[in-house]
Amino acid sequence: MRKTKRRAQVLACVLSLAALSGSALAQELTGTLGSPSATTTISGKQLPAPEPAFGGVIKDDALQSKPWWPPRVVPPKGAPNVLLIMTDDAGFAVPSTFGGVIPTPTMDSIAANGLRYNRIFSTALCSPTRAALITGRNHHSVGFGVIAEQATGFPGYDSIIGPENATIGRILRDNGYATSWFGKDHNTPTYQASQVGPFTQWPTGMGFDYFYGFVGGDANQWGPNLFRNTTQIYPWLGHEGSLKMDRSDAKAAIWPVTGKEPSWNLVTAMADDALDWMYRIHQTDPTQPIFLYYVPGATHAPHHPTREWVDKIHAMHLFDDGYEKLRERIFANQKKLGVIPQDEQLSPWPNDVLTPWDKLTPEAKKLYIRQVEVFAAYVAYSDHEIGRVIQGFKDLGKLDNTLIIYQNGDNGTSAEGGPEGTFSEVAFFNGVRPPVEMQMKFYDAWGTEFAYNHMSAGWSWAFDTPFDWFKQNASRLGGINQNMVISWPARIKDKGGLREQFMHVIDVVPTLLEVTGIAAPEYVDGIKQKPIEGTSFAYTFDAANAKEPSRHKIQYFEMMGQWALYNEGWLLSTKVDRAPWDAFSAANPDPLNNQVFQLYDLSTNFNQSADIAAQHPDKVKEMRQMFVAEANKYQVFPLDASVGARVASPRPSLTAGLSELVYTRPMTGVPQGDAPYLLNTSYTLTADITVPEGGAEGMIATSGGRFAGWGFYLLKGKPVFCWNLLALESITWEGPQALAPGQHILEFDFKYDGLGVGTMAFNNFSGIGKSGTGTLKVDGKVVASKTMEKTLPVILQWDESFDIGSDTITGINDADYKPPFPLTAKFNKLTIKIDRPQLSPEDIKKLETAMKVKAIAD
């Protein structure tokens, strides 16, 4: 009788688990059911999986009772480890694997032992591609029509990956994988990036158990805005070396770099941390599969390789004959490798967009070669460190059953440095393009912590060969056609094979689900999930399917008003009407229809060079209608062609709408998205401090860093307010004498002369970046007054924070102090009052008239 009852209890548990798994056949049980070592797979339809019914026996006392443990959830038997790698801002021609001249031996090795793919598509921009990659859904479907810093209040553009769009990290984790994310997180809304959270949109809140990386679009690799999980860390402190600037000429914009570079760089540190995590998981449970999402900052600006790698590239003399010759050499290499058709024609150099090499001055050539050698060193350095991570899988004996996906670029090569390149990308986002002669002052600093550098767009055009245009250009293959390599020794046997099927980053998630044997969930945390929108490309792993037609039939593209539609080999494109460095001109008011339409047959014209729209007007009309249908389906509307205006436009923030902020104790690390926004407005900072006997110095408050920002501090006891205007100029207000011991009220008041960001609503930038007058007071007495002829129009340095009582990462003025520069006076209170300009009815009327005049002129 007792045995019959026990069998019934076990049967009930098995049936409960079977229901949990969808069917008894789908369930994989190991060990003795109810024992601590038992494991099971689940159907995955509901995450997290509901607990099975208790299968033990409960009596009045433990001696007569029978314990029972629910089985631990594990992935299906044989599920591979997954290493998903994606680099940043790298076009088709960057790696040697696809004909480039920059050595990428790690990628070469994966290709030789696996497969090459020449038609994997991105969205043309960072955050959107990343959101699509980790969710398996189109970027507008998950709120990332643009980068997080441009978010607007529409479902397709709000930068929120909703709970109905569970990431691959969450799905794999709840099915028994160990999950991690290393590198760039550009998918947290700017207004949720502070230490007060919420952290639901951070990697650890989206299913990745471990995060080591930076939050935002890019980072100083020598001293990044770095987090472990949700805690900011500063591991580079103590690794500064003796690299410094020669301050002999205090009026110069920049000084030669001298000394030794720091011994810490994020590119290496990230690989070290990934290896540490892998070993920790392996040594804790060698049987647990891992999912490692590895997305380095390379090669997004700033390009920050070590000097060792710069020297290696410089010795190769890869770029001495200029960007046109480079392009031709890469094109020939691509044909030799067979990664593009042999009969493809290279389009002419765009002389109307980019100055031909032989028209440049010797000084410009010298600068541009320096720029590209640093970029190339960054590529090679990153590939090397990725190789160390892959070696870790080999050393642990896991490589045979590890699926490695190594995608080159989340979009085409960036041209956001403009035709001249720039010593600071922060300058680009403020509409400033420093001329060559000014940039030459930064020549020796290129690639070091004293530059936030980006190369000339001429190189970027070459690095997108055989295509044209760049990152941001969603209608051109140079912006969206990436490449990747995949290896999985246990499964993929067609070593060195080429796959040419059309694929998109949304196809990665369904591919991973198929090969792991894990189903897409129907519910996560009780929330009905949106369908996965991608198509698995696992079929391409088999040699028998090498030439099978693509199963991904239709795909839209849209980025800041430029758009395209792919449909079974056809590509409808809008003609490029804005270069990426042109972020502040009036936006196309009707980006859906006010376009020149181009049509291509990619089955016969691989690189989108032969426009056949005139021969197929009916096809153009048909595909325009198809785009509208796709746009409606995936939250693409309303289309918006603005660029810079969206960066400065209002969005949620912990300080949004507040005109007075009061701080009564020091704190650091408030990101720009939640910091007081003091651009294009009048404001007053009032600090209440107490100076001890012997005097004081240190930071009262600061926002930004070496390449743009402001600081309010005591220097040798004197009160100072400093505006750093893109490292090109510093405007300083300073008291004449050190503060005496005792309590003091310091005030900096700024009266702005412009109309503010409200003008941007009218496609007009006339109200931003204007002049203003600052006045510094000590205990109510004016000690300094000065007019700024111009102010920053759009943004401070975004990877630096708002700090009170000290300064993190880099300082506002290297000549005055070195972070953390703690305040040695007693901090009593800081009050910030903001008086934003309000447009009068007359202002609005003038701006509306200007819009009408501009529309007529266009």
Can you tag this structure with a few keywords?
858 residues, alpha+beta, Alkaline Phosphatase, subunit A, Arylsulfatase, C-terminal domain, 6-stranded antiparallel β-sheet, 16 helices, disordered N terminus
Number of domains: 4
CATH topology of the largest domain: Alkaline Phosphatase, subunit A
Helix count from the secondary structure assignment: 16
Please state the CA-atom Rg, rounded to the nearest Å. 29 Å
Structural class: alpha+beta
Strand fraction:
15-25%
Query: Unreliable stretches, pLDDT < 50, 5 or more residues?
Result: 1-15, 18-25, 247-255
In whole angstroms, the N-to-C terminal distance is 91 Å
InterPro entries: Alkaline_phosphatase_core_sf, Sulfatase, Sulfatase_CS, Sulfatase_N
Family: Belongs to the sulfatase family.
Keywords: Calcium, Hydrolase, Metal-binding, Signal
Protein name: Arylsulfatase
